[in-house]
Write a structure and sequence with these properties.
The complex is a heterodimer of chains A (164) and B (84). By secondary structure, chain A is of the alpha+beta class. Helices cover 35% and strands 34% of the residues of chain A. Chain A has one domain: Molybdopterin biosynthesis MoaE subunit (Aldehyde Oxidoreductase, domain 3). The termini of chain B are far apart. The chains are: A alpha+beta (164), B alpha+beta (84). At the A-B interface, strand 4, helix 2, helix 3 and strand 8 of A face helix 1 of B.
Chain lengths: 164, 84
């Protein structure tokens, strides 16, 4: 079975497979690429002073996939030679497990690093995904950014961070 | 006009359900996403605190609060997101 470049699912994430999918899915000559930058987001055992026990992720899956497609399109626009693979896990995740895996591939390392960083910043800004944190003494929904894919300021900020 | 409303994360907890069907207006009326939200916030007053931080989707596409909806649409309300 081929691994999709953009996906949401309940299975554990596999960064090797993600990077492999990006190599074989390349519509252009994959031999032109000199860099793959990867990112793995992990469930941390602490958050703002709380001892975290586990997280439960929820997504509006069809819209989240569209958000990933939008992020891939933004990357194609900003770093035309870079390509993106992005998988997000949902459901119950234990401490140390990976919640998000990203691979970005390009002829040169600068674009690969930038595209990878940009992708995670944009996921946090616009993807309809939520974490429910279970900690010692309670539980809470984590609420970050208001999801507005057309917010030019947020997009510019993601680009700024990516290129810092 | 009947719509399906999808709620996520804390909004779902407040309403006690992930999905509900509501008659929001006469079939011929012009109704926006914002109208659906305000009707919902009347039904579940705790939602009102999210007025300025929610975003929305219609039929699984990002939408603005002033988007006009049609009979049978699925309208989703999204609290601030926290993926990654």
């Amino acid at each position: 079975m081929t691994t999709p470049l953009l996906a949401i699912g309940r299975e554990p994430l596999d960064l090797e497979r993600l990077a492999g999918a990006l190599a074989t899915a390349s519509s252009t000559d994959s031999g032109r690429d000199g860099a793959v930058a990867t990112f793995l987001g992990l469930v941390r055992n602490h958050n703002v002073g709380r001892r975290v026990r586990h997280l439960e992720y929820e997504a509006y899956e069809p819209l989240a996939l569209k958000a990933f497609e939008r992020i891939a399109a933004e990357i194609a626009e900003r770093w035309p030679s870079a390509r993106l693979a992005l998988h997000h896990r949902i459901g119950r995740l234990e401490i140390g497990e990976a919640s998000v895996a990203i691979a970005a591939r390009s002829p040169h390392r600068g674009d690969a690093f930038a595209a990878c960083r940009y992708a995670i910043e944009r996921v946090k800004q616009i993807a309809p995904i939520w974490k429910h944190e279970y900690f010692d003494g309670g539980d809470v929904w984590i609420e970050g950014a208001t999801a507005d894919p057309d917010d030019a300021r947020a997009r510019a900020e993601a680009e700024r961070v990516a290129c810092a | 006009m009947r719509v399906t409303v999808r709620l996520f994360a804390r909004l779902r907890d407040i309403a006690g359900t992930a999905e509900l069907a509501r008659d929001v207006a006469p079939a011929a009326a012009v109704i926006t996403v914002g109208d659906v939200w305000r009707q919902l916030a009347k039904e579940f007053p705790e939602l009102a605190g999210y007025e300025r931080s929610i975003s929305s989707a219609v039929n699984a596409d990002y939408a603005r609060m002033d988007q006009v909806i049609r009979d049978g649409d699925e309208v989703a309300f999204l609290p601030p997101v926290s993926g990654g």
